[in-house]
Write a structure and sequence with these properties.
It is built from nine helices and eight strands. By secondary structure, it is of the alpha/beta class. Helix 6 links the parallel strand 5 and strand 6. The longest helix is centred in the last third of the chain and has 16 residues.
Length: about 280
Amino acid sequence: MADPPFKAPQPIFVVSDGTGETAERVVRAALRQFRGHLVHVRVYPHVSSPEDLDLLFRRAAGRQALVVSTLVTPEMREAAERCARDHGVLHVDLLANLIGQMELFLDQAAVGVAGLLHQADETYFRRVEAVEFTVKADDGKEPRMLRHADLVLVGVSRTSKTPLSTFLAHKGLKVGNVPIVLDRPPPAQLYRVDQRRIFALTIDPDVLRNIRESRARNLGLASTNYDDLDYILAELEYAHDLFRAHPEWPVIDVTNRAVEETAGIILRIYDDRGFPGATGDASQL
């Protein structure tokens, strides 16, 4: 039987006067709704002139590409629409309608300055500081830092404490996390933190065993009770006894949840409790 003919990936050009991260994330989120298509996403950042746009749209026409743009200034958005018409290119402007509707809603003209999402302002440096803090405070390495944390995550090993901490840190929050280990009390410093800032993480024991077995294999670890189901059940029960003794700690089940989903739950509770909110999107750093 002859091999099926080779099909080249369909190209999507992401064009932006900034980094292009916003448009790329939107495109890749949309692509998850489609199956069986080979697509190549190419990002063209910091496009600053109509001449550059014309060159890119001419190239897109030659490759029959879709162009997705996030261009801030009206002049550049108009130039992109003109290039799309002139070269017969399918074009999606992600910002035009949104900015227009927000101008009507806020009764104010947009400033039309590119790159504001990534400027090195006070918010940016706050996120940098939060990431540095969170790295140092990871996995209970520096219990003395907990009193300076915006929030603290507690849970047994492999309940996503570190990736969650990192994600929240990129939101501008200083995060500490403390592992719960069977028959080993948490550090005394944990109880000196505002208890409303502590969030407990749990997980289905069978799922946890699968995660730990996979990790043990990947690391080439010798057989231990780390991935033994009886040990896991005992460890989770010990953790839940601790959680029940501290009803101020919201208990969040991370089973089969994406980090972003769990982080969203934490941030909603954190905000409802009146603490200062997170700053910006995780992609901004």
